UniProtKB/TrEMBL annotation:
GO BP terms in the entry: iron-sulfur cluster assembly
InterPro entries assigned to the protein according to its UniProt record, in alphabetical order: Fe-S_cluster_assembly_SufBD, SUF_FeS_clus_asmbl_SufBD_core, SUF_FeS_clus_asmbl_SufBD_sf, SUF_FeS_clus_asmbl_SufD
Protein origin, superkingdom: Bacteria
Protein name: Iron-regulated ABC transporter permease protein SufD
Native organism: Marinobacter persicus
Length: 428
């Protein structure tokens, strides 16, 4: 019998030790759990559509350099933190100066702060479903702890710009933890970009811990290049009457994978998850979401839409788990998919697992193509076929794009989507 492939030991040796001792100990412990970790195959349920796209060569295990660049100079309408290859660049960042809000890089934490954080890192994620979050835990060289005291309100969005680059193959492991105190509020924008042509891996983890009444909006924009494999995880734990809103916009690549897990642990919690994905060429994008209704009287709303062109592949796997004590839960999940070519592929798998009897739950999924009657109508009114295709396709996703609450992000997303359509559609 052929032995299943395992994660190369080359990935278990971080390059940097400039972290407080409790975080170094955590990193070592995470690495010990990865020894002989089986690599995903098509028989691995939550990787069956994506395993063939995963290419982790030993040369990619090398930590990417964090020198030689000064950070991206994007003008953002708010505060900014820049990461280059998983390491923060203070001179390129602009921090808020407000009472009740503290933003610290992992390397600047005191021993007590690092010890407390080491108990929190990974606590929001299911290790069985996000095995590569453990790889991040074994390899992170820097990170950001965002602490909001009770009642604190960040007056502008906080942009975290993650840039991955390299002249040779390698990998980066950004890590973010948001500790949102009672009744605090903030909007966090994560933008993933890249430069260079070498084969790179970005393995990212962002976690949110929401105390009662906290209100957090998370916006995730993935725009890395064709040379970057991206494996990301976002974990959320919510207490009583808290609200979490997520907007994810993703552009395909050689491998894009994002696991989003939300756990509603306090009564009255609410979450709203929106996602848009577009793929073309031979690109791949896989979204896996899971919403755990643990407490009663919680609401969740989830809407994801995928567009696949050429010979690309998009995946959506959404799971809602209603626990026995989660009576009066209200959960709704909807996934719509648009195939632009006969060679494109979209796999969708909505899941409901219900163990309470007084709940209201619904889920639905559709896969289709552009309506020829609508195309004919627009063309007959003097609109070119290419423009008609663009209008109908943009209408399919614009409802979700328009809900992004930060104008600069909406404009960036729409600009990139227009570029996608320009490349995808040809004038008939």
């Amino acid at each position: 019998m052929k032995q299943a492939p395992t994660l190369s030991s080359a990935f278990l040796h971080p390059a940097c030790d400039q972290l407080p001792e409790p975080l170094l100990a955590l990193r070592k412990q995470r690495a010990s759990t990865l020894v002989d970790m089986p690599m995903p195959t098509r028989k691995t349920e939550n990787w069956k559509y994506s395993a063939k796209y995963l290419k982790l060569d030993d040369e990619m295990a090398i930590s990417l350099p964090n020198e030689g660049k000064t950070g991206n100079s994007l003008a953002v309408p708010g505060y900014k933190v820049v990461f280059i290859n998983g390491v923060m660049v203070p001179e390129a960042s602009e921090f808020p100066d407000m009472d009740g809000i503290a933003i610290k890089r992992f390397g600047d934490l005191s021993i007590d702060e690092a010890s407390a954080l080491s108990l929190q890192l990974g606590s929001t994620l299911d290790p069985k479903r996000t095995q590569f979050a453990h790889l991040n835990g074994a390899r992170f060289e820097d990170g950001l702890l965002i602490s909001l005291k009770p009642g604190a309100v960040l007056d502008q969005p906080l942009f975290i710009i993650h840039e991955t680059w390299g002249d040779a193959p390698g990998s980066a492991y950004p890590r973010i933890f948001v500790d949102a105190g009672a009744n605090s509020q903030m909007t966090l924008v994560e933008e993933y970009i890249s430069s260079g042509d070498a084969s790179l891996l970005a393995n990212t983890v962002t976690e949110f811990d929401l105390a009662h009444g906290a209100n957090i909006t998370s916006i995730r924009l993935n725009m890395e290049g064709e040379n970057v494999q991206h494996i990301g995880a976002t974990g959320v734990v919510q207490q009583r009457s808290s609200r979490f809103e997520s907007h994810c916009v993703g552009f395909g690549g050689p491998l894009r994978r994002h696991d989003l897990q939300v756990r509603l642990e306090g009564e009255g919690g609410e979450c709203k998850l929106n996602g848009v994905v577009v793929t073309q060429g031979k690109q791949h994008y896989d979204n896996h979401t899971c919403i755990d209704h643990v407490a009663a009287h919680c609401n969740s709303e989830e809407t994801y839409r995928n567009i696949a062109a050429d010979k690309s592949h998009a995946v959506f796997n959404g799971r809602i788990h209603i626990h026995p004590d989660a009576q009066k839960s209200n959960a709704d999940m909807n996934n719509k998919n648009l195939l632009l070519n006969s060679g494109a592929e979209i796999d969708t798998k909505p899941e409901l697992e219900i163990y309470a009897d007084d709940v209201k739950c619904a889920h639905g999924a559709t896969i289709g193509q552009l309506d020829e009657i609508s195309l004919f109508y627009l063309v007959s009114r003097g609109i070119g076929r290419r423009q008609a295709n663009v209008l109908l396709t943009m209408a399919f996703i614009n409802e979700l794009v328009e809900q992004i609450p930060v104008e600069a992000v909406r404009e960036t997303a729409q600009m990139r989507l227009n570029e996608f359509f320009e490349q995808t559609f040809q004038e008939a």
